[in-house]
Structure formats: structure tokens, C-alpha cells
Amino acid sequence: MKRIAVFACTLALCVIGVTRVQAQDNGAPDVLSDLWNFEDAVPVSTGQIDLRLSGRWITASAPANRGDSNDDFVLTPTVFWGVANNLELSASLPIWLGDSGDKPAGVDGNADAYLGGLWRFMEPDGMWPAMAVSGTLRIPTGNDSSGVDAELRLVMTKDYDSGMRSHVNSFVTTVNGDVDTAGDERNFQWGMVLGMDGPLCSNGAVRWVADYMHRSSYHYGARNVNMLELGWEWNIAAAQKLGMDVQVGLDDNEDTSNFGIGMTYAYTLMN
Q1: What is the pLDDT, as a whole number, of residue 69?
Q2: How many alpha carbons lie under 13 Å from residue 77 in its C-beta half-sphere?
């Protein structure tokens, strides 16, 4: 019942708004943060609602099952809402689509829900980058899941005259529930992501994106995770964006997925 309630709330947020489009703050590029391992310090504009649909194929499925399950296929609807100036909120509900799903012999379907927010507390000023803090809560709506996890992230984004941008994210995560069958998840996790993006064409409609993530393992006894992402984003129209990424695990251990491909389609609405 609780899964149905969360899904209903997500759908309710999706249908708020009409098709009038509002651009990003000052035309600044804004990466699809639900596609990449990093976030940028650009919140959606005040009153804007983004509906995003992400799909991902992951080999090894290591973060969920220490490599015991087959490949995973995950579909994630997400809503981003610009609540106020420099403040956005988000809600997402991953849906596992078979081939072992989230857990060995587990029930496929929607997993835990995630509620997030990003607050930009400093806009770019000369040599200083834009800075923001973001937070995410995992709500135990999935099958046999319990507890609430929390992540806190510091986000920095620097713009350059060439149109390129660099990003630095550092984060800490507290794990307080039971979300997989291994039962040995680290209670405290940490990590850092270095990212870059830049224009691929003269009008900036297509941008390349790359990032490198180093983080603690998800489970006790495993080595740290190193992951590389490469891909692109395309502003199809004022209200539509499409992105695609490829993930490659840089170390061979049970907490690093070997390979993954993701795609996100975003459609912008406004109150």
C-alpha cells in the first residue's frame, strides 16, 4: 500500500503544470543530474517543473548484490520542481524491470523512493565557482526494505569563457536500513566526483559530459569504487532534453559494476 501511495504522489506532481516553457537561469546549461554521478550547481528555475524518465542497464549489479545477480534493467521517473529562487526539490521512484531485479529472487517492481533537494547558496562571482548543497533521503517503499538513508553533498560548478564547465562534488551517506539481502552495507559511506562538460556545436545545443567518481565501497570488506562516465546531452527544443551516458568500472571487485548504459529524456513544464 505504501508503494502505491508514493507512486500516486509522484504522478500527482507530474501532472501539475501546463506546457508553457521557462528557460534555465540566465540561459545557463543544466546537466541532467539523475543521469550522471555528479550534480551541477544550477537549480531549475522558480516555478519550473521537469518530468524526467531515465532508463539504465547495469552489468554485474554489484551495488545491490555484490555481483550475485544478473544484469539489471531500471526505469526511473523523476520530477524536479523549482520551489523558490535557487532552490529545487525532486522525487524519484526506481522501477526494476526483471532479470533478477534489485535482489536475488526478489520481487520486481518499484523499489525505494528518493526525495531530494538542492540549494544554491553562492552564485558564480569572478574566479569563484557557484556553490550549492544537496540532500537526498531514501524512503523504504520497496519490498522488504526498512530504515531511512540520507546523503549530503557539496556541489561546486565553475564556468569558463570557452563554454566549458568543471564540477566538484563531495558527499557523505548514512545507511540506516536494510536494502539488500547481503545485510553488510557500510553504515557510513563517502565519495568525490570530478566532472566536466562543454559544447559540441557552435550553438551549444549538444554538450559532451565526462566524470570520474571515487567512493567508499557499499559493503564492508570490499575495496573502494572507481567509476568513469562519458556521454552527451542534447537540448532538442526549449522544453525537451535528451542525454545518454556510458559507465565503465575501473576496478575488478564485487562492489563495482563492470559496465552500464543510461538514457534520460526530460520534458519541461511550468505552473
Answers
A1: 55
A2: 13
